[in-house]
UniProtKB/TrEMBL annotation:
Role description: E2 component of the 2-oxoglutarate dehydrogenase (OGDH) complex which catalyzes the second step in the conversion of 2-oxoglutarate to succinyl-CoA and CO(2).
Species of the source: Marinobacter vulgaris
Basic and acidic residues compositional bias, start-end: 76-111, 140-157
CDD domains: lipoyl_domain
Pathway stated in the Swiss-Prot or TrEMBL entry: Amino-acid degradation; L-lysine degradation via saccharopine pathway; glutaryl-CoA from L-lysine: step 6/6
Cofactor: (R)-lipoate
Name of the protein described by the UniProt record: Dihydrolipoyllysine-residue succinyltransferase component of 2-oxoglutarate dehydrogenase complex
Note on cofactor: Binds 1 lipoyl cofactor covalently.
Lineage top rank: taxon: Bacteria
Length: 416
């Protein structure tokens, strides 16, 4: 029985998507609930699985094609056995097919005979973007085909070994000869992914529509670092997760948001919406771009609960498995450029939120302490805010409140 393979029903905020990767090809056997195609939207990658045991009968939307919510992308034949070769055709077309086969040899067979790797379009694009030699990637797909996941795993393995930035060397005999004349400067044009295009649109919109202003301060991270050092091992042993700095910032921000409701608000047309809860988005860098999963009701979460959620979201972001519901509805955002070495920056608002906190690199600097110069681990903090909603006084006091709680962590527990 033939059934339609449809794109998932997109949320109202998502107009359309793009076919990212077909994991199965026509005639290839599939097991029930096995991943067959990825649909990329401007927020997440949605997975479509096989409805039953059978084979892919036909692909109607190829990789890179635009699809709408619920649109048919292919056909699936339930209960059929996988075929290693295309189905036999009637006698009248055999002679014509023989001519076509003689003149148009499949790309896969050509690649096999020349010893080259067989890549899907998505895998080839990812390999080119990361300067990866396809022949160095072990293919796990049908007939040794290199899938997008194979390339991504190769990239991740290279990063963990510290060698991802350098292209994989090919044997001298296989090194392609590229002739570039003197004075020529090579370029590569790569279309934006839907996520990158969405990020660009939102950031430009934030700068054009909001009266954005940034206030700065600095915090002595010594007390938090000492507390973390003292309880790091016992915390990890008890809760099964490492104690990081982000949980302290999240709790400090939560307490500060309760004191300054305007910072925890949003603008909807001519209305100002004040939220009686704290849903804090944590900006996470992924291979697809910056995503902001949301920690719900942070007031009810302890440090361990926050750390576990951050690890969970970080893993999902890396694997491209974050759901749309996990990235919508935040009331405030924290972004940490310090993990990349940023000393100070101006974060851009995440609409419709009215404020965003930027963390930066911890750096030892000489500071005046009780009339004496001491070396202290300092971090610059930046709070960008929408001046239409938040006055400068509130913004400064909000940032000072965070600074005071981090320099005396007991304030976070005592709410003072």
């Amino acid at each position: 029985m033939s059934t339609e393979i449809k794109a998932p029903v997109f949320p109202e905020s998502v107009a359309e998507g793009t076919v990212a990767t077909w994991h199965k090809q026509p005639g290839e056997a599939c097991s029930r609930d096995e991943l067959i195609v990825d649909i990329e939207t401007d927020k997440v990658v949605l997975e479509v699985v096989a409805p039953a045991d059978g084979v892919i009968e036909e692909i109607l939307k190829g990789e890179g094609d635009t699809v709408e919510s619920g649109e048919v992308v292919g056909k699936f034949k339930e209960g059929a056995a996988g075929e290693s070769k295309p189905a036999a055709k009637d006698e009248g077309s055999k002679e014509e097919d023989n001519k076509e086969e003689a003149s148009e040899k499949p790309a896969e067979e050509t690649a096999k005979s020349s010893g080259e790797a067989i890549l899907s379009p998505a895998a080839r694009k990812l390999a080119e973007e990361n300067n990866i030699n396809p022949e160095a990637v072990e293919g796990t797909g049908k007939d040794g085909r290199v899938t997008k996941e194979d390339v991504q795993n190769h990239v991740d393995a290279g990063k963990s070994s510290g060698s991802a930035s350098a292209p994989t060397a090919k044997p001298a005999g296989d090194m392609p000869q590229v002739d570039i004349g003197s004075g020529e400067r090579p370029e590569k044009r790569v279309p934006m992914t839907r996520l990158r295009a969405s990020i660009a649109k939102r950031l430009v919109n934030a700068q054009q529509t909001a009266a954005m202003l940034t206030t700065f301060n600095e915090v002595n991270m010594g007390p938090v670092m000492e507390l973390r050092k003292q309880y790091k091992e016992s915390f990890e042993k008890r809760h099964g997760v490492k104690l990081g700095f982000m949980s302290f910032f999240t709790k400090a921000a939560t307490e500060a948001l309760k004191r300054f409701p305007a910072v925890n608000a949003s603008i909807d047309g001519n209305d100002m919406v004040y939220h009686g809860y704290q849903d804090i988005g944590i900006a996470v860098s992924s291979d697809r771009g910056l995503v902001v999963p949301v920690l719900r009701d942070t007031d009810a979460l302890g440090l361990a609960g926050i750390e576990k959620k951050i690890v969970e979201y970080g893993t999902k972001a890396k694997e491209g498995k974050l759901g749309i519901d996990e990235m919508t509805g935040g009331t405030f955002t924290i972004t940490n450029g310090g993990i990349f070495g940023s000393l100070i920056s101006t974060p851009i608002l995440n609409p419709p939120q009215t404020a965003i906190l930027g963390m930066h690199k911890i750096q030892e600097r000489p500071m005046a302490v009780n009339g004496k110069v001491e070396i202290q681990p300092m971090m610059y903090l930046a709070l960008s805010y929408d001046h239409r909603m938040i006055d400068g006084k509130e913004a400064v006091q909000f940032l000072v409140a965070i600074k005071e709680m981090l320099e005396d962590p007991a304030r976070i527990l005592l709410d003072v």
